[in-house]
Amino acid sequence: MKKSASNTVKHTLDPNNMPPLTAEQKARLEALAAMPDEAIDYSDAPYLPDAVWVRAAGLPGYKKQITLRIDGDVLDYFRNTGSRYQSRINAVLRTYVDAQKVHAK
Length: 105
Known about the structure:
Helix content: 25-40%
Number of strands: 2
Mean pLDDT: 82
Radius of gyration: 21 Å
Largest sheet: 2 strands, antiparallel
Low-confidence stretches: none
Distance between the termini: 53 Å
């Protein structure tokens, strides 16, 4: 546990060394796993379009540098999502290409 100059405590979680689940946490997970899909309340879940954009993140492969003209508002949207916005643009385009391949079959 590290303290920064502003007294903010930061914790780092090692995904290869996760803390053990408590008995209560295990019971909750088992209850969720046993729940039928129809019983799940999705009313507070955000709308996701048919294309699952998250799936496209982090695909392997080589990239080519190009010059591309994009509408200003589209570019602003992606830039406002933070660093690696170009990778997110690529992920959206990758998902579109994959969807077109499926529809072409």
